[in-house]
Target: Cell division protein
Amino acid sequence: MSKKAATKQPEKKISPWVWFINLGLAAAFLYFLFYLNSVPATKLNTGIPSSATAQTSKPNSSANVAKTATKESDEPRFKFYDMLPETEVVAPKVEAYTPKKSNEAIIYMLQTGSFREFDDAEKQRATIGFQGLKAQVEEVKLSSENVWYRVQVGPFSSRSKMNSAMDRLVAINIQPLVKKQKREN
Model:
């Protein structure tokens, strides 16, 4: 055997002060638990009205408080359970809450992009087609040399159908532009 294995390291002894402090903490904790056990429980909501609590400050009124507390516990505290079925509220019809019908029919178009190259517009049209929407590419000439290709989805006759299509487009990270147009008859 080697000398390192044969020599034992001396055991470290715990100081008496550490024992004393640990015993003191344990005794304080036990005293705290005993103190909590001896504290009387308090009631959070006694249900006694403020006039009855004022009577408790008078001497020999503890019997009165007990009588009022038992009387009130026999009667229901709330009467709306009885009143609610008997009442009925009829809301008046107000013109501001009815939707206005316009004489002009409006259609909605969603512009999803505008590109200088036709191939880029076709790629976006195909991407939109995978979402189940029909898109068309419109050529816009600003001048003889300046040509743009718009990708549009629609027309939609109602706002709810347009919102449904917008949700599909946003799902594929396309933020469309809403365009209102009067319907041509």
Summary: The two ends are 108 Å apart (CA to CA).
